[in-house]
Amino acid sequence: MTRAVDVALVCSLVVCSLVGGCQSGGGLPEVKGGIELGLRRGSAWSTLTVRPPYVIGPRVNLQLKRDAFVGAIEGRPVQLTIEQGEITGTGPMGQVNLSITEGPDELIVEGMWNGARVHFRITSHAMRGSIAVYQSQSFENVLFCQYVLDKVERNGSRSGMSICGGLPEDTLIEVPRAVQGWLTRPELVVVLMALLSSPPFTNMETSL
Questions:
Q1: The pLDDT value given to residue 173
Q2: DSSP-assigned letter for residue 37
Q3: In whole angstroms, how far apart are CA 116 and each of 16, 45, 142, 172, 198?
């Protein structure tokens, strides 16, 4: 895969400007000077701040140790091992077994996340897929968020629609280009799965 496609598929899924907004001091010393990733649905935001080895947000607290992420998502323990393009281990609500497949102009992420099926196809023009979201940290109450982000904004952000148990919501995802210098492709996939599986909910939806 060429360098241009590599950036387009992974690190430039969405690219926000590094002048304001992307650099985040954060409230914790571990992520001071880190970079913020954001997911907006309607007017609500979920964010993660990345400063290796830490990935921290309101519902995510992960630390990268060699080829593994350890910590918690939604207050539940997480241990994920990255090896040869595969991500395996235990997520907050179940088994994780993801494969990452590259094509000439696409990146496919598929397998299991939190014990449920997940599939995303990412190209230089679109990002489409679905992922399980558990309500109220209940194993019995699960829904699937579907993302169709097929518009590239002027600043590089990806926008479109998502459905998480309610009406379609305008959706925007921002992942700054600078993250590519800090995380490998599989590491960034873990961060994206953590963000996409803990989306913000609107007043018209059942919230976590």
A1: 95
A2: E
A3: 31, 24, 9, 24, 14
Residues 39, 151: Cα–Cα separation, whole Å: 15
Locate the domains of the chain by residue range: 3-196
pLDDT at site 12? 41
Cα separation, 8 vs 189, in Å, equals 14
Q: Where are the alpha helices (DSSP H) in 136-184?
A: none
For residue 15, what is the DSSP state? -
The predicted pLDDT at position 16 comes to 35
* Distance, CA of 168 to CA of 67 (rounded, Å): 37
Q: In this structure, is the dihedral angle defined by the CA atoms of residues 179, 181, 182 and 185, taken in order, positive or negative?
A: positive
- Taking 50 as the pLDDT cut, the residues of the chain under it are 1-26, 207-208
Cα 81 from Cα 123, distance rounded (Å): 25
Burial of 58 (0-12, 13-18, 19+ CB in 10 A): exposed
Return the pLDDT at 208.
Answer: 45
User: How far is it, in rounded angstroms, from Cα 164 to Cα 43?
Assistant: 15
In eight-state DSSP terms, residue 189 is H
Supply the pLDDT for residue 142. Answer: 79
CA dist 201 to 21, 30, 40, 102, Å?
22, 27, 9, 31
